[in-house]
Known about the structure:
Layout: H1 2-5, E1 47-56, E2 77-79, E3 88-93, E4 99-106, E5 114-119, H2 120-125, E6 134-142, E7 153-160, H3 163-176, E8 181-186, E9 192-197, H4 203-212, E10 219-224
Amino acid sequence: MLAGCGEKKPVQVRIPTPPPPITEPEPQPPQITQTAPPEATPTSPLYVETGTASWYGPPYHNRRASNGEVFDMNALTAAHRTLPLGSIVRVTNLETGHSVIVRINDRGPFVTGRVIDLSLAAAKAIDVWRPGLARVKLEVLETPAPILTGGRWCVQIGAIHDEQTALDLQDRLARMYQTAKVIDFRSPVGTWWVRVRVADDDRARAEEVAKNTQPLEGTVFLVRLD
């Protein structure tokens, strides 16, 4: 009896139900909003010229261009005698229809009948490299200065193959135009040039000098310096 009275009733413990597992939401792909590209607006050229293009590379590569920077024949640049330095020009090969946009950073070509001298890269872009010459259209898109007014002008005469001939021409022009600065210099290909800078680099005076100068050797070109 005593043993029976000493038994303890088992204690019932209530175990709570475990919470459901937490599931993270699946990542959603980012929302991409597609917008249509802006329509290209045609640019009306400021000036149009048609003529023959040539190209140049060595031995002018890595030499100073007319604007002071080092000429890189692998960049899209070009030389022009009268457009303001820094002008942006679209050049189109009239035979193939290929176009390239170049920046004018040099002066030339100093060959009668040619209007622009392309860098090697630009010449390759519009199929001028292999033939050497091509009929092109120039469309000036941007200029840092007016094309038809202002500017600093000079007359450049060459290419002269004999140094003494260049010195004689320099002396004669210096006596004819005493207010002008007349210099001679040698090109990278070995020919000599004579440059006449009239007073104030005035275009009208430079045009007069160009008209009245008839050298025994070399060709006369009107050149813009800026």
